[in-house]
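@here heads up, posting the sequence + SMILES for the fe (ii) ion run so it's all in one place. Ping me if the SMILES looks off, I pulled it from an old spreadsheet.
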Amino acid sequence: MQLTLRKMLHNLGALTELSAQISSTQNFEEVTRASLHTLLGTLAIPRGAIARFTARPRQLKVVAAKGLAGTVGERFVVGRDEVERLVSRMRPIEVAEERNGFAHFVRQNGGAFERLRARIFVPMIARGELMGLIFLSDKLTREPYGEEDIEIISAISQHIAIAFYNHRLLLSLKRKADENRRLYREMRHIYRDTVRAFGAAIDLKDAYTSGHSDRVGKYAEAIAREMGLTGQSLEYVGVAAYLHDIGKITVDRAIINNPRPLTDREFGELNKHATTGYEILANIRHPWDEIAYMTKCHHEKVDGTGYPQGLRGDEIPLGSKIVTLADSFDAMMTDRPYRSRLPLDLALGEMRRHTSKQFAPEVVSAFCRLLLKEIQGLTRERVIIPIIGLKFDREAAENQLTSMLAELDGVRPKYRSAAS
Ligand SMILES: [Fe+2]
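bot reply: prediction finished. Complex structure tokens:
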């Protein structure tokens, strides 16, 4: 009686140990090996192996073995009907028993059974599915397996089966997650390419500002990065910049390409492009809602004199303030029908003159920092200089930017910065 009690406690201990092993985060092969060792140790069985079942290809493959050198990787052929019978059997099966119902399976895999020195094999079943087989040799005492042994073997094999099932589930979830991540990345690329293609299409309409959207996109991304934006916030400022003039596709080409100063009516027509752009973009489902609104506000001025809404300071989204500066800088640095491009010092002078009026000081400051770093070779890659070229006096530009930065340092925006 006492012996039985001790044995039960021992078995209970083994099961607890097994549960701990199975739920641990160790690598799965390790868990399988440890589970096999626990099972063999509990019943003093010198040799054993665990084979995992896969449906495609339909086979059993040894994944862990003890006392059976060179048997890991051994494969068993198994028929569809044999799989079904193993599932319904669930109990340990004597290899030598003629009428065990698996004579064909044993004969067909005779060599493998011999190499595993298998006396019994135990189907591992979880949720009605075959997970694998456990092969056990004779016990150390060579006594036959008793009723109690069979009970404990069945219990342990079910534990291992559940671990196999969970592991398979985990792998398939991981595969799905990887696949989703890949698809998401692909969609982002497609989205980005589409945005750039749109930008290029907008630019085609304007004979004088070829590549404008592309340059504004690049400037805006670089300024946003300099302002500390990262990840999605950075990306959506870039997208808004590439698309900022999309509303121009509805403006008469004659107005856009008019070399003379525009009349009030023409100005009115042209200025509609901010609102039209918003209407176009608001109908597209972007990854980020802010994009349509950012483009709408790219002609707002921080002093409230811009259009279409006359927003002031902080009412204007940060992304729009960045696009405004990038847009104006590119306009100054490219030839227009009514004037040639400005030299850099004059463009910077204009920027300084319109700070806190048209431009947000924190954006001007970021732009100056960025350009200064590019001139001094302190950035990983240059964005502004490759676009504007090197036809400027480097030292003069450095001095001008440094003095602008010193001046801006003392300028506290009258409104709270949207970046803060
Ligand atoms: Fe515009």
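MO: The chain has two domains: 2-175, 206-409.
MO: One more: The domain at 206-409 is CATH 1.10.3210.10 (Hypothetical protein af1432).
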